[in-house]
Amino acid sequence: xxxxxxxxxxxxxxxxxxxxxxxxxxxxxxxxxxxxxxxxxxxxxxxxxxxxxxxxxxxxxxxxxxxxxxxxxxxxxxxxxxxxxxxxxxxxxxxxxxxxxxxxxxxxxxxxxxxxxxxxxxxxxxxxxxxxxxxxxxxxxxxxxxxxxxxxxxxxxxxxxxxxxxxxxxxxxxxxxxxxxxxxxxxxxxxxxxxxxxxxxxxxxxxxxxxxxxxxxxxxxxxxxxxxxxxxxxxxxxxxxxxxxxxxxxxxxxxxxxxxxxxxxxxxxxxxxxxxxxxxxxxxxxxxxxxxxxxxxxxxxxxxxxxxxxxxxxxxxxxxxxxxxxxxxxxxxxxxxxxxxxxxxxxxxxxxxxxxxxxxxxxxxxxxxxxxxxxxxxxxxxxxxxxxxxxxxxxxxxxxxxxxxxxxxxxxxxxxxxxxxxxxx
Length: 425
What we know:
By secondary structure, the protein is mostly helical. The chain has 18 helices and 2 strands. It has 2 domains: 1-229, Growth Hormone, Chain: A; 233-425, MFS general substrate transporter like domains (Growth Hormone, Chain: A, Up-down Bundle), CATH 1.20.1250.20. It starts with 5 loop residues before the first helix and ends with a strand. Pfam families: ATG22.
């Protein structure tokens, strides 16, 4: 693969831009900040956790309902970038607002957080769909993987700055409170996200589209209905989405449950943050490696490799006892989490009709969002029945086996003709 084109580089820079949000707002700093603010307001731990869950569920529900409709409308000429810019702007604005909300306004803080999630997730629908506009099928695996790789690296820079500010504030090394340091982290996230999105806004254009009609909303509803009615004609696409639903649920569960799992092993919060940081660094080159190997052995084969690695990870988790064991587990996760997500995005982009890519990435987003239900429930129920967290993580191999079996039935790189619904090479 030759060097990336200007459009490809500009597209991958959005992974660099929005990854700061994923790590700081979704995973690390903001959840802890909200818990502290809620506690100061008199909420108990279980109550604040419940509100946190409600907020995430509401945001997920809203964007999942809107995704197919917005995606179908965005397939019209000139709409994709406008929709991307709107949701990106929504996310950045409300992330900035998080930095100025008074600490006694915990409910308004959570309200603003919901809009950051909607902005982040909404922008990702159109960002993923832009992959077909910036590159060709032969380069998709590596371009998508490169995006994930630089995203992992990019997320660590504002993360390190933010954590350093908070730790220095905790130790009174700098004359600000931990609250102020946390708010500074939110502002840094918004600035990082906004600044590094400029190349995409400037250099990436919608090359595949359908011509506008008089009533785009009505047309879009009809198109979604016809797509669902003709689901058998789109069998390769929806078969892949079904496989994706299962195995990506397992991937997300391993990621989202890792902190709680580590805590159950007695690993301190500081060590968990260090492990999270190192995992991000290690994941970057492995994401690129997956992309390169996919060009040699095909994307579907490497997806099976990723699924196989996660089966090994879940099996190894059953025997975890020490901090060293957790380090090994984290590095195994780092070796495959970026690769399997990047190649899934590229594989799906090759399957869907390019003129309807936004509509289908709307469905992709639904499966992505709702693929966070079975895994945590499976871990929780198994852990409660057995009294062992290790057994809960081990139970996730069920999801990977089901996903792998369904993926086996998906044809390799066949694009669906939107006019006939027939798979074509």
